[in-house]
Amino acid sequence: MCICPPGFKGKLCEIGCGSNTYGADCTSHCSFYKSGCKGMYLCTSSFGCTCPAGLTGPLCNQNCPSHKYGNDCTQNCSSKCFNQTCNRYTGACSKGCPSPYIPPDCIEKYMYLLNAPELVSANVNDITIKINFKLNNFNSDKGLKNLKHYYQILYKTPEDTTYTHTKSRLLHLNEVKEVTIKHLKPDTTYTIGILLIRNDGNYNDQNIAFVNSKTTCKIPEPKTNDYTIKVTQESNTTKITWDEIPLTPENCKITKYTLTLKSKNVEDNFNENYTIENTNNTSYDIEDLIDNYEYSLIITPWVLSNPLPSSFAYNFTSLYRDQNRDIGIEGIQASTIENNNKLITNYTIHVSWIFVNYDQVNSTIIEPPIIVKYKINRIFSCSLDEIKNANWTSKEVRGKTSYEISDVTPNAQYMIQVVLHSEDKNEDIIQRKNTVYALIPATKPSLRPLLVEPLQTVNNSVTVKWNIDPKNCAKLNGEFLGFFVILYSNNNNQTFEYITKEYYYDSTYNLNSDTDYEIKVYALNDIGYNTEYFLLNNFTTKIIKPVPIIDDLLIYKKSVKNKMLGLRWKYSNVSNIENIEKFNIFVYGTNTTNVIKENNIEPEKCSNWPEFYCYTIKDLDLKNINEVKVNASDNLNVSETSTVIYKPGDKLPSPPLNLKCINITSTTVTLQWDIPWVFNGLLKSFFITVQDTSESEIPEIKEYVVEETSNYTYLIDDLKPGSTYSIDVVAATPYHSSPASIEITTKST
């Protein structure tokens, strides 16, 4: 007989008992307390002894990690669970799982067919498919027989962005069904698949097996061979156009056109075929035909591999071009010329070329005009990438074989083209071969840094922040190295110079107080810096005033579990500051000098200690902190910083303070005490022990702490008149403090 392990039930042992039940049917309870089965050891003859589901550890009192579940936490959560977290008792994914996995355990996928539907037939407007619903064609048979499933047929063309869904139909297991998809487009390829839908509406659309099928079409039958051919000629280009062949919706699409160009002179005996694959284009350009020559043109449409009737022959004569047709340009060169002046160095690009075959034509022909085109291709001060969509500048040159391009950008690459005026429109052939490049050397920067925010002056320190406008990076004119900073003191004529890559200057209290300063910031590249372009600011440091002091900084409570740390301090105002603007709290880690948490708080005194300030830092991992620092500041001054070291070993709270009796009757006494000075944890309760000095002690009293207040009161009743009692009050966090004691005598009746 098969039985489930402790903590599980069900036909496949897939149902977890939970936190407080056990047994083969999960009907037995471990405990009457919230702790449930925690700390118990379950033993069976079949499985031996093990911790209950959801628990592990030597005493079976430790919860499973978030990625484990089951007895003794031996089972892993499904890898498909979000964050791989699951219920430690049942294995159900705590945060769900992605489609197409089935919750709650997220191990199996929703149903899908392993094989795509088979193609039975295809017609002009429909396709018939065969769908296999046999058991071996499903990804899983789990729940297949018990749960109703439906199916939809999905199909779309390559141009469609979404699938068309047929209506849902009931799936009959072990059936092989033929279905016809109607109202389709002729001569079109369709992608077809089957979507299975469970009775709860969920489905798996990520593992669908698809098949491609194409509808048929009818071969068109043109009514005429006259395709209205037209020929237009311009310069070296002969443009041929024709009309589209009229098609019905059921006709096959034209897949290509073949243009056959022949000599009208039969004795020449040559022909040339041009194939046009793009059926949306009913035009074609032919380059460099023989001048003044008679041609015959025939156009043949094709459907798939079948030619349609060819057009009537169309005859035309090519143009006779001008006598400059044999003149060409070669030997294009580009060089940079340095231009020096007192302020800055700049460059000019010298472009030169030579004519080919110019001396072989008639000497009466006027020298052809030249077009010099240029653009910035790369600006290395900004990026190594080519500039997209850069604008060309075109200049027409006559009677010369050179041209100079001025006002060029330093540290940049220029693309230059030199072409005949008649060839300027032929981008692909002429201009590519007539292209040269020129690299402009770097020069000193021609831009000034920008001030990001107003100067911040505090006592004998100043902070200046600047930036470079990225839109003007071309004006860096070279490889950017940082900034050259000059700080000048007007009072004692001292100058301090340094180079930095930072975008700010922070004096860190190293300046003289009550002193006038001037700061200049220059952009610096591999050539140097430009004395004409700089950021200038003047400022005056302030007279140093006494600063406020943080005293008695103390960690008075902490909780690793609640990620909390409570601070208390006293503020001694020895300056002229009338109002504190804020306290600044910095938490430092154990393995780093960096601040791991920073809080800036408004000054607010403790309700429990009115002479002190308090603040509780939350969401803090106490295992990774070393020390806490606090200072005070207003809009001009910052106090000295006080430091307290975090000691994780401190656990005992201090005893309650100022224990006293505020009211006594013959049978009752009212006690009052102040909150302990240090908690070292979370203050949870007070234990009150009352002992009659002449008899045995009264049962211990536990008073829970609802909130932290400056003092607490408690009424002890049922006392004996005229009796003397010794009373101890202990603070609990849950560690117990030493007691605060008092002895009282009730009134006599």
Automatic annotation (TrEMBL):
<dbReference type="InterPro" id="IPR013783">
    <property type="entry name" value="Ig-like_fold"/>
</dbReference>
<dbReference type="GO" id="GO:0004896">
    <property type="term" value="F:cytokine receptor activity"/>
</dbReference>
<dbReference type="InterPro" id="IPR000742">
    <property type="entry name" value="EGF"/>
</dbReference>
<dbReference type="GO" id="GO:0043235">
    <property type="term" value="C:receptor complex"/>
</dbReference>
<dbReference type="Pfam" id="PF00041">
    <property type="entry name" value="fn3"/>
</dbReference>
<dbReference type="GO" id="GO:0019955">
    <property type="term" value="F:cytokine binding"/>
</dbReference>
<dbReference type="InterPro" id="IPR003961">
    <property type="entry name" value="FN3_dom"/>
</dbReference>
<feature type="disulfide bond">
    <location>
        <begin position="4"/>
        <end position="13"/>
    </location>
</feature>
<keyword id="KW-0325">Glycoprotein</keyword>
<keyword id="KW-0677">Repeat</keyword>
<feature type="domain" description="Fibronectin type-III">
    <location>
        <begin position="222"/>
        <end position="322"/>
    </location>
</feature>
<protein>
    <submittedName>
        <fullName>Angiopoietin-1 receptor</fullName>
    </submittedName>
</protein>
<keyword id="KW-0245">EGF-like domain</keyword>
<feature type="domain" description="Fibronectin type-III">
    <location>
        <begin position="446"/>
        <end position="544"/>
    </location>
</feature>
<keyword id="KW-0675">Receptor</keyword>
<feature type="domain" description="Fibronectin type-III">
    <location>
        <begin position="655"/>
        <end position="749"/>
    </location>
</feature>
<dbReference type="InterPro" id="IPR036116">
    <property type="entry name" value="FN3_sf"/>
</dbReference>
<dbReference type="InterPro" id="IPR050379">
    <property type="entry name" value="Type-I_Cytokine_Rcpt"/>
</dbReference>
<keyword id="KW-1015">Disulfide bond</keyword>
<keyword id="KW-0732">Signal</keyword>
<dbReference type="GO" id="GO:0009897">
    <property type="term" value="C:external side of plasma membrane"/>
</dbReference>
<feature type="domain" description="EGF-like">
    <location>
        <begin position="1"/>
        <end position="14"/>
    </location>
</feature>
